[in-house]
């Protein structure tokens, strides 16, 4: 999911040849705390994450999942099996301990960490037979019991970045678990939420309401869209909140579509106009363009992270669409690192890497 074997093979060739931006991206990953050979995980039985005030286990879980994914990538690129062992040790430590997630942010916490756990596990399991079968099965059981109940919860009236991140995790876990029903549920959720999150004029005068929710009237939608009442192509439900959450949503949406692409389903094409409009709209203002008065009262919060590489790679590299603003933003952010939540090392894996599924 998200990154395929052909893409990893391309990364290995670029890094071995010392080519940019992959060389710098690999060096940045190698120097991160997540790539430390003596990385020590901190598993917990219960991960209790209150809104903006979770326990230490919340941060530890997200960081340990990113460390497992980082070490899986380090192994894949370098060939050093010590990193594969490191990734396995981190995943085994958590599968031995964690039982449940609780409190306000359980759904979001399991989305962020669960999507990353699945990516790490897929890379390792695909090519490292020394991960014992019983421990692989224990890890799969962990995903089913401690993560899936939360990421499949119904949250129609929440800000859309929640459901998109939850769908990202659901789809990734479905692929690792080889669960067709779960995968198809994630596809349906994507198809319902993405058009309700990013606006196109073809939607009508108002944005599509969140699927299955109570937000429906013009006033309710304006409040849900953080006071915005003028809708233009590419605008997002959380644009007037901040670009950080828009970035999360763009990244999660791309992760879902990229995973589906590797599974033989082209979700990108279904919403290509909508997603390219969203990328260009937000990249334009993230790069510093002044916001007009109709947009968020003339003030936007330019806080987007390293969130556009996966989508840019597909739309420009595979579909040959022109995204000049998104390309400028990606180049400015390179080499992209990690947001310490669920986006990690995507310059390395997806910059100019439009390999086929």
Tell me what you see in this structure.
The structure is a single chain. By secondary structure, the chain is mostly helical. It is built from 15 helices and two strands. It has helices at residues 5-16, 22-31, 56-78, 81-97, 106-127, 133-151, 160-177, 180-197, 218-224, 243-262, 267-270, 272-286, 309-318, 324-333, 346-350, and strands spanning 46-48, 100-102. It has a two-stranded parallel ribbon.
Give a short synopsis of this structure:
The chain has 357 residues and is an all-alpha fold. The chain contains 15 helices and two strands.
Key features of this structure:
357 residues, mainly alpha
What is the strand content?
under 5%
Give the low-confidence spans.
Answer: none
Report the total helices: 15
Sheet with the most strands? 2 strands, parallel
Helix and strand run: HHEHHEHHHHHHHHHHH
Strand tally is 2
Helix content: 55-70%
Q: Name the average pLDDT.
A: 97
Separation of termini? 10 Å
Radius of gyration: 19 Å
* Strand order in the largest sheet: 1-2
**Silhouette:** globular
By secondary-structure content and strand pairing, the structural class works out as mainly alpha
């Amino acid at each position: 999911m998200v990154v395929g074997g052909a893409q990893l093979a391309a990364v290995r060739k670029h890094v071995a040849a010392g080519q940019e931006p992959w060389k710098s991206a690999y060096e940045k990953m190698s120097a991160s705390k997540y790539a430390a050979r003596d990385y020590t995980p901190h598993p917990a039985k219960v991960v209790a994450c209150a809104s903006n005030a979770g326990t230490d286990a919340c941060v530890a879980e997200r960081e340990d999942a990113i460390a497992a994914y980082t070490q899986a990538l380090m192994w894949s690129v370098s060939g050093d099996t010590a990193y594969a062992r490191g990734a396995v040790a981190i995943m085994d430590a958590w599968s031995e301990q964690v039982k449940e997630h609780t409190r306000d942010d359980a759904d979001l916490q399991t989305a962020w960490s669960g999507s990353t756990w699945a990516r790490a596990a897929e890379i390792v399991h695909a090519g490292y037979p020394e991960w014992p079968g019983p421990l692989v099965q224990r890890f799969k059981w962990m995903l089913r019991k401690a993560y899936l109940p939360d990421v499949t919860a119904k949250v129609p009236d929440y800000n859309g970045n929640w459901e998109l991140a939850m769908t990202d995790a659901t789809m990734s876990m479905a692929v690792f678990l080889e669960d067709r029903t779960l995968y198809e549920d994630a596809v349906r959720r994507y198809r319902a939420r993405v058009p309700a999150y990013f606006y196109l004029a073809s939607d009508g005068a108002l944005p599509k309401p969140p699927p299955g929710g109570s937000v429906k009237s013009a006033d309710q939608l304006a409040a849900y869209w953080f006071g915005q009442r003028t809708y233009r192509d590419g605008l997002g439900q959380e644009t007037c909140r901040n670009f950080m959450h828009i970035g999360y949503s763009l990244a999660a949406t791309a992760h879902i579509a990229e995973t589906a692409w590797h599974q033989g389903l082209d979700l990108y094409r279904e919403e290509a106009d909508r997603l390219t409009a969203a990328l260009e709209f937000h990249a334009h203002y993230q790069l510093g363009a002044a916001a007009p008065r109709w947009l968020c009262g003339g003030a936007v919060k330019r806080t987007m992270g390293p969130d556009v590489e996966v989508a840019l790679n597909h739309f420009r590299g595979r579909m040959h669409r022109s995204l000049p603003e998104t390309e400028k933003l990606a180049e400015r952010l390179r080499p992209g690192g990690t947001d310490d939540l669920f986006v990690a090392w995507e310059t390395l894996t997806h910059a100019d890497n439009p390999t086929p599924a």
